[in-house]
TrEMBL record:
InterPro entries: Nitroreductase (IPR029479), Nitroreductase-like (IPR000415). Belongs to the nitroreductase family. Residues 14-192 form the Nitroreductase domain. Keywords: Oxidoreductase. This is Nitroreductase family protein.
Amino acid sequence: MFNHIHNNDFTSIVKGRRSVRNYDGNVKISKEELNEMIAEASLAPSSANMQPWRVVVVDTTEGKEKLRPLVRFNTLQNDTSSAMLIIFGDTQSYLNAEEIYNTAVEQGKMPAEVRDSQLNTILSMYPTLPQEIKVEVAKIDSSLFAMQFMLVARAHGYDTNPMAGFEVDQVAKAFDLDEERYAPVMMISIGKAKADGYESVRLSSDKITFWR
């Protein structure tokens, strides 16, 4: 997908993204295409390439019924979207470190000595970090994935809405995830807009940038 996107195309994707709350309920995105979008979004950067984002895709009637009481004032997105993605940060993502780095060596993307050095650092440091630091790192990295997913979705011709308004203390347990390990980050609804989202105003770059 990204190999065919030129600068002008990417600019139009960024400028064309809207937060859409009302979707065409007749549009269903296939599992295959959702998997493709998640894979493309997973090209996002992360600390030590630990890729801590984890995604629960809620696209069944039963799943949405379970999610509905947990989304507070975001029921329209839940009811009309093709799917709701619940993004979590895995605070034990370092458990995949050996697989990630061994694969990098096997594919010729990293020398074995660099892998050994990196793994030694990761496996001696990450498990000993305080839980609040693990959560913070996982949330920051997973937010990079979430933003990238929304742009990928736009490139595929779909609309999205990021949401923080949900029961963060209940959603992991509701979908059978370990509450201590997986930190809720945000939800993203995805589908085809039934009603266009409003174009919003942004502060100018000189209002948000400090040159030194």
